[in-house]
């Protein structure tokens, strides 16, 4: 009887998780199904499946409007996102290593200032940052995204790496030092392989946030030839008075595929990094 009760409870848990998963995934399912609908079906029907299938939404949507298509927007987005992610990882690891393993003057003050930047609303720094980048001649380029990432301006990522490195035993550093390693080789040969879960977490977060960023992109990028995917989707809405929503939805589906693929490919390390960050070794 006890075994039967446990089995029943397990199946109930599975059923609950399946239903919860369907509720969470339903918007994506609706988005994919709506890419095959007409405008009348999208706005006039509550059903998931279309009454009339439209098969050319992806092909027409990929062509884009005017001179540039979504292939150009995807290339632009990768050109923006990949350096930003790489520089964010490198700078966050280096700064976090310094905070977690070294003692230097004003360390506590600098760490407090870094944490305090997390509490600054984006609206308060938007105008000063725009003026600064304008004076430096960086507007209508990807430099406002890439260069700050190289100087560890993402306090959240630095803090995440600090907490993870603090959880690694200092005995590893001491053993490596005895074997002749300096501070740089301790980081590259000993700590970095162990920091892989946290590094993947930083990379995934930064990739998804930069890929989906619309607000900063529309502020700093003005040339259509440099538009990212998010701006390309907005351009599709402004191109004509009669919007083909199935094409917009189709390109929205395509635009989220890289984020989904990246998450599932790195899911193991991502979950491990989130679950172990902040634990003492």
UniProtKB/TrEMBL annotation:
Cellular localization per UniProt: Cell membrane
Superkingdom of origin organism: Bacteria
Keywords: Cell membrane, Membrane, Transmembrane, Transmembrane helix, Transport
Transmembrane segments: 12-33, 73-97, 109-131, 143-162, 198-222, 242-265
GO terms of biological process kind: transmembrane transport
InterPro entries from the UniProt entry: MetI-like, MetI-like_sf
Alphabetized Pfam families for the sequence: BPD_transp_1
Domain ABC transmembrane type-1: start-end pairs: 74-266
Membrane topology: Multi-pass membrane protein
One GO CC term on file: plasma membrane
Family: Belongs to the binding-protein-dependent transport system permease family.
Name of the protein this chain belongs to: Sugar ABC transporter permease
């Amino acid at each position: 009887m006890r075994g039967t009760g446990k089995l029943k409870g397990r199946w109930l848990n599975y059923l609950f998780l399946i239903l919860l998963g369907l509720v969470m995934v339903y918007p994506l399912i609706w988005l994919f199904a709506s890419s095959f609908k007409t405008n009348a079906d999208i706005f006039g029907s509550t059903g998931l499946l279309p009454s009339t299938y439209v098969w050319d939404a992806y092909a027409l949507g990929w062509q884009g409007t005017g001179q540039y298509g979504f292939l150009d927007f995807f290339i632009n987005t990768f050109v923006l996102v990949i350096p930003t992610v790489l520089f964010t990882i490198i700078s966050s690891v280096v700064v976090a290593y310094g905070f977690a393993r070294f003692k230097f003057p004003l360390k506590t003050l600098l760490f407090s200032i870094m944490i305090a930047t997390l509490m600054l609303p984006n609206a308060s720094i938007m105008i000063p940052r725009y003026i600064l980048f304008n004076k430096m001649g960086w507007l209508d380029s990807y430099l406002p995204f890439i260069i700050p990432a190289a100087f560890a301006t993402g306090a959240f990522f630095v803090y995440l790496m600090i907490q993870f490195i603090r959880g690694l035993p200092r005995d590893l550093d001491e053993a490596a030092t005895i074997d002749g390693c300096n501070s740089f080789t301790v980081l590259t040969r000993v700590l970095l392989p162990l920091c892989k879960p946290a590094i993947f977490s930083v990379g995934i977060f930064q990739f998804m946030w930069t890929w989906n960023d619309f607000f900063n992109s529309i502020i700093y990028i003005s040339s259509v030839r440099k538009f990212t995917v998010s701006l390309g989707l907005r351009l599709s809405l402004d191109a004509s008075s009669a919007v083909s929503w199935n094409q917009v939805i189709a390109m929205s589906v395509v635009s989220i595929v890289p984020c989904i693929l990246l998450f599932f490919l790195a899911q193991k390390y991502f979950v491990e990094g989130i679950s172990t960050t902040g634990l003492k070794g």
